[in-house]
Each structure stands twice: as structure tokens, then as C-alpha cells.
């Protein structure tokens, strides 16, 4: 700029003063923003600051550009305004934002594939979790194509779901896995004994093998993360424990939204702390994945709960089965206290809850003094089940059944109200997700809606999509190393749910309303019913959560660019 003003010393001086004043203004503004509200939780990222700085410097460049034109009409700055802005930003090394501290995220999947082949499961895992969290994802999968039905004793009944041909391999591509390890439920015992020969591990292996197997394979999957870190000389910022058979109803927030001084859990589940999903800062992951801290550490794992027969903690019953006395005494030392009290009672009744997986999870967190917070993570398990026989004796192969009822658990308010009496290391409440503070009936009804067979969202499977992409790579070629959402134009139009059909409203009827659309949880239907008196219910502050409905707005026909894509008829959802 000074060179362009050569020969005009006064103009150069004025210009220099303008630049100095404006730069001081920008600097003071950024400093003020960086020090404002020190007690509040902010999510301002480096990229956001760079964006503000870039905008501010663009304003500076435009003012300088205008001044230059006023002093020298023949200046080359007249020709290309964008070029002048670019030149200034390039000179100040601000044309491209400073490098953003992108978070490295390791996703750890371990277990049977189960319902992962269901399109609504694998596409929602990719878009609503991995793409939504952002950062630099790396996916580590330890998987078995076998499954086990719970028969309590031993490993349960092992069976192999009927996956078709390359179906599972093609579906795994959606997650862009860094490493995949396969294991067999039929032969896993030898590996378990080789890795963990400790007698305490043997007690749990032989008496609670399904749960021990889950813990073991999570641990082995995490070792893939550690090897990756060692080989690449880096450390992940976050580790995500997640299941392959989980459907995600809504997108989560970007990873920058979550405080890294606590482990984030979802409130869905049977009891207080769910052990099927964790968003873990790297500083806590070694402890949480260490199998010895769960099995050998006193006061964490115990034999009990609904999946362990009580006779396994009954000395007389064990002797009658020919179990050696030393083994009996070793086993009894690891039985849950409530199971021993139950067996000692006259009628052998009483609570049997200390052996729940979620209760073990809570004790494990507490022993490690892990700070915990509950976030809005609308995740639900989906079961892959045999379809009932149809007329004529023909049966479908398998159907995907989401457990929508588990979304309405709502433990968050209780968790933070009861505070330290529930969990001594509960982190101070931080609500990064301003959409909802807790899961509500809205999520359960939305889950029922989007999984209804008449709802116009039937995503194409990954296998079918890849076959289509092989024929039309220019139209459907997707790079899974990048965000799938960012390549939305290259996706099959059925993959993402129709956003305009998912908006939900809760309506407060006026005093003279004739009736309300009411959702029946038993019949799973929306019926026309008499409106409850919302104005009198708890002083008008509370409404009946079942009286709500979803407003679906759609055109009489698809736009031209979506026609002929194999989408369901709009009239299918009446």
C-alpha cells in the first residue's frame, strides 16, 4: 500500500494512521471478547476468532480501498476490489484463517454386528454422530458376525444372523474404519485366558461370561487405539465408546461444545448411568478401558443382577454340582452383597440390583473419581429380529425394531437435583445443548414416527448405495474420509431423513377447543380425544405430554430433480 502511495508523503502518512487506528480497534475488540464473561462456559473456537478477525480485516481493507480511490482515481486498486482486499490480507498473513486446533476423535466399537446392517442405524451413526461431532475421526472396530442369546449359564446360545453376501463389509465402509479386528464368540475363551490369566478374571469369565465378554472386547478394541497412537506418535483428544447397533435420532453438537474436564453420558437406559455410550476426554480413557480396574479392583464388579443365576452364589448349590471347595470360596468372595442377603433370607426374596451393568458402571466411575455429566444424546438400541410369519407361511428374513421406549428415561433432573448423594463426582451442570435439557416424550414419539412403516423415509442400504455408485460414480461417488453431510448432493436422496417432516410442535389448546390429537403409547396411534385442562393442570405450568402431534408439510409432488429416484410416493403417508 505504501508503495502504491509513493510520491504522496502526506497521503501515506494519513493512510498509515488509518491502518494503525483500525488495527488497534480490532485488537481491543478481540481482547475484550476473549476476556468477557470469565465465569460463563463459552464455546468460542479458534476458527470462530479467526473468522471474526478475517471479517474485521476485510473491513479495514475496504476502508483503505475506498481511501485509495479517493486520493488516486487511477490507482490499480480501482480495478478489482476483491483483489485489493486479498492483497492486504495476504500481506498480513490473514487470507487463510490460522490453523484450527482440530480435535482427534477415536471411535471404539466392540461386539456383534447385530442391527448395524439396518439402514437407519448405519446412516444415522455416520451422519448424526460421527459427522455431527466433527473433528478428525478415526474408527476402530472389533466385531463378531456371531451373536449370543442370553441363557445365563455359559456364553448363551450362539447363533449367526443371516447377513447377505458382502452386506456387512459394504456397510462397514460407511464408517471409514481405520482398523477392523474380527473375533469369534465360539473360540474367545482361549484368548481371554491368554491375555488375563488372573484367577479373579476366571471367576467372572465362568459365571458371567456374556458381560465379561463385553468388557473384554471393549478393552481389546481400545488397545487398537493405543497402538495407533504409538505408531503415529500422537494422542487423541477424545475417545467415544459406542455400539454398532445403535440408532441416533438427532445430530449431536460439534465436539467443541462439550467441556473436556468430564465424561459425557446419555441418560437413556434402565438405571441411572448408561454404559452403552460415553464421550470420553483422553485423560480418562485409560482408566475406563482398563479391564483390571473393573474386574480386579475391589468394590466394582460383582456377580448378581438379572443375568446371573442366584445358585452361583449359593455354596450348597455349588457343592451339589460338584464344584471344588476352593473354587466355591473364590466365587463367593465376588458375589454381590444384595444377592448374598437374598439367599440368606427366609423366603429368598429381595432386591438384586448391584449386579446390573449400569450399577457396575457407576461404581467403576466412582472408584476412579471420574467427573461425569449427562448430555442430550438421543441414542437407542435397535434389535434385529426374525419377522413373524405372514399368510401363506412365508416369513421375512429379519426386521429392525428400535427400542423407542428407552428414550424417555429423563434421569438428568434427578441426577443433578440429588447431587452428591447419587454420584459424588457429578460435574457442575453445563448445558451445551440448548435445544433440550433432557430427553422428553417428544423424542419417544419422534422415534415412533420416523420408524413407522408408512413414514416416507426408507433409506437405501449401504450395500445398495455402493452398487449404485459403482454404476454412476460421477453422481453417487462419496469419499467416506470426508464428512458425508458435506457431500449431500452426491448421496442418494433417500439416505437423509426429510427434515421438513421432523419438526415437532406441542400445542396448548384454547379453552373452547373441541378436542386434541392425542398420542396413545399403548396403541401407538394418534387419536382424537378430549383435551385435558392445560390451564388448571399444576397452575398452567404443566401440560399433558401425550397431547401433541407432528405437523407434516409436503408438496403435492416431488421437485423435478428428485423425480425418478425411486422415492416412496408422497401419498404413502396419509
**Largest β sheet strand count, sense and barrel closure:** 7 strands, mixed
Number of helices: 18
- Largest beta sheet: strand ordering: 5-2-1-6-9-8-10
Q: Name the beta content range.
A: 5-15%
Radius of gyration: 29 Å
Total beta strand runs: 16
| Secondary structural class | alpha/beta
Shape: globular
Mean pLDDT score: 75
Q: Which bin fits the share of residues in helices? A: 25-40%
Summarize the structure.
The protein is α/β, with parallel strands linked by helices and 574 residues long. The protein has helices at 9-35, 46-71, 81-91, 119-133, 167-172, 188-195, 199-207, 209-232, 282-289, 291-295, 315-320, 325-332, 337-344, 357-367, 412-418, 441-450, 462-471, 473-476; strands at residues 104-112, 136-144, 147-149, 157-159, 177-182, 238-241, 246-248, 263-266, 278-281, 372-375, 379-385, 399-402, 504-505, 516-520, 525-529, 549-550.
What key attributes describe this structure?
single chain; 574 residues; alpha/beta; seven-stranded mixed sheet; three-stranded antiparallel sheet; 35% helix; globular; disordered N terminus
Topology:
Blueprint: H1 9-35, H2 46-71, H3 81-91, E1 104-112, H4 119-133, E2 136-144, E3 147-149, E4 157-159, H5 167-172, E5 177-182, H6 188-195, H7 199-207, H8 209-232, E6 238-241, E7 246-248, E8 263-266, E9 278-281, H9 282-289, H10 291-295, H11 315-320, H12 325-332, H13 337-344, H14 357-367, E10 372-375, E11 379-385, E12 399-402, H15 412-418, H16 441-450, H17 462-471, H18 473-476, E13 504-505, E14 516-520, E15 525-529, E16 549-550
Parallel strand pairs: 1-2, 1-6, 2-5, 8-10
Antiparallel strand pairs: 3-4, 6-9, 7-11, 8-9, 11-12, 13-16, 14-15
Helix pairs in contact: 1-2, 2-3, 7-8
Amino acid at each position: 500500500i505504501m508503495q502504491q502511495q509513493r510520491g504522496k508523503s502526506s497521503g501515506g502518512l494519513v493512510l498509515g494512521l488509518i491502518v494503525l487506528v483500525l488495527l488497534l480497534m480490532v485488537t481491543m475488540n478481540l481482547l475484550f471478547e476473549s476476556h468477557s464473561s470469565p465465569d460463563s462456559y463459552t464455546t468460542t473456537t479458534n476458527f470462530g476468532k479467526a473468522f471474526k478477525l478475517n471479517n474485521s480485516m476485510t473491513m479495514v481493507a475496504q476502508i483503505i480501498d475506498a481511501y485509495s480511490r479517493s486520493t488516486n482515481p487511477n490507482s490499480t486498486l480501482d480495478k478489482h476490489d476483491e483483489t485489493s482486499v486479498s492483497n492486504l490480507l495476504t500481506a498480513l498473513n490473514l487470507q487463510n484463517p490460522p490453523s484450527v486446533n482440530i480435535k482427534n476423535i477415536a471411535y471404539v466399537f466392540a461386539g456383534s454386528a447385530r442391527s448395524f446392517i439396518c439402514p437407519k442405524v448405519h446412516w444415522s451413526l455416520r451422519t448424526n454422530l460421527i459427522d455431527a461431532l466433527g473433528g478428525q475421526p478415526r474408527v476402530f472396530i472389533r466385531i463378531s458376525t456371531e451373536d449370543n442369546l442370553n441363557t445365563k449359564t455359559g456364553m448363551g446360545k450362539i447363533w449367526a444372523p443371516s447377513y447377505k453376501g458382502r452386506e456387512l463389509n459394504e456397510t462397514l465402509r460407511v464408517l471409514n474404519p481405520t482398523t477392523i479386528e474380527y473375533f469369534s464368540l465360539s473360540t474367545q475363551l482361549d484368548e481371554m485366558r491368554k491375555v488375563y490369566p488372573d484367577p479373579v478374571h476366571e471367576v467372572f469369565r465362568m459365571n458371567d461370561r456374556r458381560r465379561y465378554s463385553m468388557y473384554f472386547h471393549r478393552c481389546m478394541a481400545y488397545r487398537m487405539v493405543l497402538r495407533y497412537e504409538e505408531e503415529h506418535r500422537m494422542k487423541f483428544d477424545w475417545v467415544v465408546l459406542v455400539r454398532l447397533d445403535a440408532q441416533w435420532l438427532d445430530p449431536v453438537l460439534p465436539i467443541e461444545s462439550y467441556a473436556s474436564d468430564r465424561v459425557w453420558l446419555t441418560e437413556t437406559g434402565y438405571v441411572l448411568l448408561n454404559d452403552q455410550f460415553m464421550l470420553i476426554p483422553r485423560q480418562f480413557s485409560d482408566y475406563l478401558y482398563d479391564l483390571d480396574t473393573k474386574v480386579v479392583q475391589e468394590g466394582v464388579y460383582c456377580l448378581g443382577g438379572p443375568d446371573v443365576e442366584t445358585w452361583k452364589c449359593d455354596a450348597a448349590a455349588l457343592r451339589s454340582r460338584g464344584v471344588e471347595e476352593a473354587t466355591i470360596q473364590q466365587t463367593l468372595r465376588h458375589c454381590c452383597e444384595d444377592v448374598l442377603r437374598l439367599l440368606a433370607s427366609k423366603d429368598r426374596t429381595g432386591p438384586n440390583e448391584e449386579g446390573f451393568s449400569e450399577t457396575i458402571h457407576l461404581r467403576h466411575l466412582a472408584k476412579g473419581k471420574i467427573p461425569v455429566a449427562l448430555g442430550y444424546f438421543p441414542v437407542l438400541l435397535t434389535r434385529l429380529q426374525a419377522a413373524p410369519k405372514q399368510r401363506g407361511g412365508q416369513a421375512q428374513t429379519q426386521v429392525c425394531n428400535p427400542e423407542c421406549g428407552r428414550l424417555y428415561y429423563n434421569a438428568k433432573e434427578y441426577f443433578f437435583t440429588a447431587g452428591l448423594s447419587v454420584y459424588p463426582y457429578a460435574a457442575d451442570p453445563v448445558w451445551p445443548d440448548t435445544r433440550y435439557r433432557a430427553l422428553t416424550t417428544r423424542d419417544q414419539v419422534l422415534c415412533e414416527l420416523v420408524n413407522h412403516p408408512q413414514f416416507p423415509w426408507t433409506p437405501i442400504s449401504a450395500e445398495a448405495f455402493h452398487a449404485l455408485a459403482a454404476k454412476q460414480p460421477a453422481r453417487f461417488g462419496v469419499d467416506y474420509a470426508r464428512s458425508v453431510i458435506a457431500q449431500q448432493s452426491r448421496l442418494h436422496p433417500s439416505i437423509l431423513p426429510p427434515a421438513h417432516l421432523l419438526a415437532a410442535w406441542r400445542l396448548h389448546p384454547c379453552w373452547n377447543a373441541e378436542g386434541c390429537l392425542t398420542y396413545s403409547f399403548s396403541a401407538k396411534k394418534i387419536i382424537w380425544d378430549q383435551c385435558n385442562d392445560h390451564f388448571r393442570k399444576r397452575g398452567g405450568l404443566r401440560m399433558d405430554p401425550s397431547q401433541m402431534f407432528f405437523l407434516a408439510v409436503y408438496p403435492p409432488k416431488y421437485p423435478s430433480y428428485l423425480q425418478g429416484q425411486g422415492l416412496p410416493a408422497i401419498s404413502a403417508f396419509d
